[in-house]
Amino acid sequence: MNTDYLLAGAGLLAGAMNALAGGGSFVTLPALMATGVPPVVANASSSVALYPGGAASAWVYRKDIGAVAGVSLTRLAVISLLGGAIGSVLLLATPSTLFNRVLPWLLLVATLALAFGKRIATRLHGEGGGEGAGPKIIQSGQFLLGIYGGYFGGAVGIMMMAFWSVTTTTGLNRLQAPRTVLVTAANTAAIAIFAVMNAVRWHDVLLLAPSAIAGGYLGALLGTRLPRRVVEAVTVALAGIVTLAFFAKAYF
Questions:
Q1: Cβ contacts of residue 12 below 8 Å, gap of 6+?
Q2: Is the separation of the CB atoms in 130 and 251 below 8 Å?
Q3: 5: exposed, middle or buried (C-beta count within 10 Å: 0-12, 13-18, 19+)?
Q4: To 10 degrees, the CA torsion angle through 8, 46, 50, 142?
Q5: pLDDT band with cut points at 50, 70 and 90 for residue 171
Q6: How far apart are CA 50 and CA 154, in angstroms?
Q7: b/e burial code for range 39-70 (CB count within 10 A of at least 16 → b)
Q8: pLDDT tens readout for residues 24-64
Q9: What confidence score (pLDDT) does residue 65 get?
Q10: Radius of gyration of the chain (CA)
């Protein structure tokens, strides 16, 4: 198969997945690696390619953004930017051989977040949550999530929701807008560093990004017609298959 068609198709599917349930990087990352892109560069290029869709979502939510548990969104965005920058530098400093060994575990974390993150968050809020954590815990956790977002980023938005569900008493519906903004903030710092350090395959990104945007639009339309549980089950199943494949490749 022509690699251009492979990447364009991967972008379309990834965009649809992100619009429906998340996990688009589970498609773009292996697609890039299948075309011969080194793993670290593939991860950086995947983040850049999927960035426009996330930024567009943040723009849509712009009127609903607000503080998280009393911590201003501006402060959290700066923390996310800093964490994303650190994570991206760590990624570029990781040798490809080491990243190949670490990658399956990152995919496993992301798969577990996809599978259980929303369920845990909903259950905790359904039970009334707790008293809520202090600002220092919120900010420290956001910093670590920013690092993860810059280094890998798979399912980081869902991980944010799960973290906030434990540390705040804010309703999940009010956390959607801050989530999109803070994920975009972490990714902004990361892709800027990836670009400056010449760690991006721009030809591949130009194939992935437009199709990912189209996939996001089509996925949003599809999401109004498909049962949510079916979409999430298919997404988690695909994520699990990709994770097992990377474990087999790295350790067997």
A1: 211, 212, 214, 215, 218
A2: no
A3: exposed
A4: 160
A5: low
A6: 11
A7: bbbbbbbbbbbbbbbbbebbeebeeebeebbe
A8: 888 999 999 999 999 999 999 999 999 988 777 777 777 77
A9: 76
A10: 17
Helices 156-167 and 135-151, axial angle in degrees (round to 10): 170
User: CA-based angle 118:179:105, to the nearest 5?
Assistant: 60
- Give the amino acid at 75: R
* Residues near 239 by beta carbon (within 8 Å), at least 6 away in sequence: 23, 26, 107, 110, 111, 114, 115
- Mean of pLDDT over the chain: 85
Per residue in 179-224, pLDDT (tens digit) is 888 888 999 999 999 999 999 999 999 999 999 988 888 887 877 7
71 phi and psi angles, rounded to 5 deg: -95, 125
The model carries a pTM of 0.83
